[in-house]
Structure formats: C-alpha cells, structure tokens
Design a protein that fits this description.
Elements: H1 39-55, E1 70-75, H2 81-92, E2 96-101, H3 113-121, E3 127-132, H4 137-144, E4 148-154, H5 160-174, E5 181-185, H6 192-203, E6 207-211, E7 227-229, H7 232-236, E8 241-244, H8 260-267, H9 271-274, E9 282-284, H10 297-300, H11 307-326
Helix pairs in contact: 1-5, 1-11, 2-11, 5-6, 5-11
The structure holds phosphoric acid mono(formamide)ester (CP).
Residues 79-82, 153, 159, 162, 286-288 line the site of phosphoric acid mono(formamide)ester (CP).
Length: 335
C-alpha cells in the first residue's frame, strides 16, 4: 500500500426516499456550466463534497480515488483560488496533475486553442480543467476533446465550480438553499460568477436579488425569476446571504460609473448596510476583492464574513466534481 494514501475512498450518501441520489456519476463527461446540470446532479455534487471535506481534516489528506488518472489544468487567464484549489483537489485524490499557463506555453507563439488542446490530448489526459477569456471556449473544447472538460471560468459566460462552492458554503451554514434570500451586488454585467449563481440558486429554489448600477445590469435576467434593483438597501433587507461581486475594471472600457469613490458610496457593502440583513447573514465574495470599492474591509474581515470558508470549500467541491467525472463509472452522453 502506498504510505501516502489510505484505501478509504470517500463514502457517498445514498439519498432518501424524498431525494434519491440518481447515480454515482454525472450524465456528461464534462462540467461546462450550471445550465447543463439537473437539480439532482447539483445535489449529488454538494452531497459528495461533504464527504470530500472530511478528507481535509485527516492527518494524511489523500485518498486513491483518481490514482492513474491524468488531469491537465489549462489556464489562459489569471487565477489564484481556482487553479490552486483544483490542483490541491487533484493531488488529494491522487491524480497525476500538471499545469499549463498561457504565458509559458506555445500559445505565445501563436498556436491556436484547438491545436494546443489536440497536442495535449495526444498525451492521453483524462480531464482538462480550462479557464479562458472567450465565452463558450469550454463548449468548443468539449466537442473536439475525448477527455472530459471542466469549465474553470470562460469569459463572461459561466464559472460553475464557483457557484457550486458558494452553494455548498450557504447550505453548510443554513442547512438549505430553498427559500433563502440571497442578494448578489456589484458588477453584474461582466460576471460569470453571477450567471452560474443565478442558474444554480434559482434551480434550487432560493429567492435571488440582484443589485448594481443600471449600466452594469445585463438584459435577460428579468425573465429568470430574480428581483433586480439599484437599491443596495432593498437588496440586503432581510437577506440570508449577501454576495459581493468584483468591479471588473479589466473588462471595462470606462464610463460605467463616475468614480470608484462614488461607486463605493452608493453600492459598496458597509457595516451599516450589513445591519439591514438577517442577524446571521453570510457575507460572501468570490475574490479577488477590491477592498474599499465593492466591499469595506470591516465587512470583508468582519464577523459575518465566510469569504475564506468559500475558498476552503472550493477544494472539497472540486474534489467532488473530479471524482464524479472520473471516478471509474462509465459515462453516458447527455441527451
Ligand atoms: N473566484 C475566482 O475565480 O478566483 P480566481 O480568479 O483567483 O481563480
């Protein structure tokens, strides 16, 4: 036996009569977005992550579930949390893992995304974890790749594992998602985190409120059953969780609001605004934070903040996704 590992694979929940767990796997070889997941699959990932989280408390944080599998992390955009937590998750499951970042790959010599991935596939990886600035890039890769593709953030489209870890964090503290008021405030227009969270939270029955300056509210959400307001006070009033989104200056050409100071005054999360929420409100942020822009440091570091719990839970949720996509079960195509 490898001394680094235990033989105990995480025990998976068996479900109840009310909430049967459909199978020990996802329907697709890929995780492209929350849009493609059923309520049962979301619950399966969150329940599996509970078992995965226990591994982090062991003296030896490693199980052999993905022994012999190769996972390639392909990051064409900057990342701290997502890339690190995927790599830790892969190592905790005993996968062979390697990282390719655009700046040190042949992408800088002009190689296309398709050629890059075809060459990596020639070396027989089992899973590709991909972050790319183009919306839809992961869907494109899923069509040309034999390996499973996990979306680690594609442009302004989706960031499914972020929404899953956010949901895990809320459910862990509140024991449910259905019926909770969740306010999501900030740069709604450029946020893939927002899109994945709206899809997930509405599927799971939460009451979702979106708040941001009218210039940063995308069209289309009105039909998705969420409330939209430009009043932070209204969004936060009685909220169970408040999720602040980063102002994505790198995706803006300017002109969305007069100044960062004015943005903070009107839309920033301050201790005074937090007092409008439930007494046990959860303050969340996917990171990286712009302190003093969308969130005051007293709130980010304050007693209601679960921002670092989100980061910790990201490892467990990504372990669950990796396990369910490559845990040895035979996959069937999504109809
Ligand atoms: N939340 C998130 O995606 O952070 P990184 O960009 O650091 O991965």
């Amino acid at each position: 036996m490898n001394p680094e590992t235990t033989d105990a694979t995480p025990s998976l929940p068996t479900g109840t009569d009310d909430q049967p767990i459909p199978a020990n796997r996802l329907r697709s070889k890929d995780l492209l977005g929350i849009a493609e997941l059923s309520v049962e699959e979301i619950s399966l990932i969150l329940d599996t992550a509970v078992a995965m989280k226990e591994i982090a408390s062991r003296p030896i944080k490693k199980v052999p579930a993905l022994r012999g599998k190769t996972v390639v992390n392909l990051f064409f955009e900057a990342s701290t949390r997502t890339r690190t937590s995927f790599e830790i998750a892969e190592k905790r499951l005993s996968a062979d893992t390697l990282n390719i970042v655009a700046g040190t790959s042949s992408v800088v010599k002009g190689e296309t995304l398709a050629d890059t991935v075809h060459n990596i596939e020639a070396m027989s990886p089992d899973l590709l974890v991909v972050r790319h600035s183009s919306s839809g890039s992961c869907h494109f890769l899923s069509r040309i790749c034999r390996a499973g593709v996990i979306n680690a953030g594609d442009g302004m489209h989706e960031h499914p594992t972020q929404a899953l870890l956010d949901a895990f964090t809320i459910r862990e503290r509140k024991q449910r998602l259905a019926g909770l008021k969740v306010a999501i405030c900030g740069d709604l227009l450029h946020s893939r985190v927002l899109r994945s969270n709206v899809l997930l939270l509405t599927k799971m029955g939460a009451d979702v409120w979106l708040c941001g300056p009218p210039t940063l509210v995308p069209t289309g959400f009105a039909r998705s059953g969420v409330h939209i307001t430009s009043s932070v006070d209204e969004a936060v009033e009685g909220a169970d969780a408040v999720m602040m989104l980063r102002i994505q200056l790198e995706r803006m050409l300017g002109g969305y609001f007069p100044s960062l100071r004015e943005y903070f005054n009107v839309f920033g999360m301050t201790p005074e605004r937090v007092r409008r929420a439930k007494p046990d409100v959860l303050i969340m942020h996917p990171g990286p934070m712009n302190r003093g822009v969308e969130i005051a440091s007293e709130v980010a570091d304050g007693p209601y903040s679960v921002i670092l719990d989100q980061v910790a839970n990201g490892v467990a949720v990504r372990m669950a996704v990796l396990y369910l996509l490559s845990g040895g079960a035979e996959h069937e195509a999504v109809a």
